[in-house]
Amino acid sequence: MLVDYPLYRVRTTILDHRIPSLAFVLEEKFRINIRKDVLREMAIPPGPWLMELKDRIAAEEDPSSTIRASWKGGYDGRGCERIFTLGELKERLALITKGKKIAYIGDAIFSPENEVKMLSIVQNADLLFIEASFLHEDEKRAREKYHLTARQAGTIARKGGVKRLVPYHFSPKYQGKGAKLQEEAVRAFREEH
After folding, report:
1. Fewer CB atoms inside 10 A, N or C side of the chain?
2. Per residue of the chain (193 residues), what is the pLDDT tens digit?
3. Domain containing 114 — which CATH number?
């Protein structure tokens, strides 16, 4: 665990690339969206006070505490404000949903040890960025260079239950042929077993 804040956490693991290489996952614990339609109905413009509202909801502060919705306006240019309880605004304005999970895997050889570590990072990720340096037909070269093939990258994404895959870091050997690497990774990602 690198950081663990009220709204998100970041974890990492060390992979083998002949030298240590890092994989990361950013996990939102939950997502707080503001219902703009209700905000309009309340005749309150958005502003920095909404970030305070989100932070205080995330920190699980006392719902009876007060919060000021303030904004510039009025004929005399002075600010306007309305005071609410945190609980009232949370109930009326906040739409709390499941957070997103974004994973990133850098350079790594395909090995049983690395596979276990990569799967622990990518499990059920909404989005995975993963290196796919070589086509599988060049698997020997990939192993020599301690990189993944596009097929291996797609397989890890599939096994990890990833929702969306973004392969990257293609070897210069495939200059102008990145689509082939993308296709191979996506094919492996979508395979049914």
Report:
1. C
2. 999 998 899 999 999 999 999 999 999 999 999 999 999 999 999 999 999 999 999 999 999 999 999 888 755 556 788 999 999 999 999 999 999 999 999 999 999 999 999 999 999 999 999 999 999 999 999 999 999 999 999 999 999 999 999 999 999 999 999 999 999 999 999 986 4
3. 3.60.15.10
What is the extent of the structural domain holding 139? Answer: 3-29+99-190
What is the total count of domains within the chain? 2
Answer yes or no: do 111 and 179 share one domain: yes
Are the CB atoms for 41 and 35 separated by under 8 Å? Answer: no
Q: Which of 77, 97, 117 is the last residue before a domain boundary?
A: 97
Pick the closest to residue 68 from 54, 55, 41, 50 (CA basis). 50
